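ok so i was messing around last nite and threw this chain in just to see what happens. nothing serious, just curious
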Amino acid sequence: MSATHDTRMDPLDPTTDGPDLALRMNAAFPGRDWVAMLMERSGYPRDYVEWHLQEEMVPPQALVSAASELLSEAGTLMAQ
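result:
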């Protein structure tokens, strides 16, 4: 039996913290600079994005929304 990592994310899920978000993004975009993708989508600078990905707190809504959009798009591409 193979284990799969669920990369879907509910933007309203209060249990999503920075490290969890980072794990989901890394699983969905292996080998890609997904931090840059989050920067572009959210409008925040890299150091701000990286800091929030390291903290065990809910990231700002703009980062959560950007990640949710990117993960949704990744899921759509994977399903094709």
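not much to say yet. Residues 18-79 form one domain.
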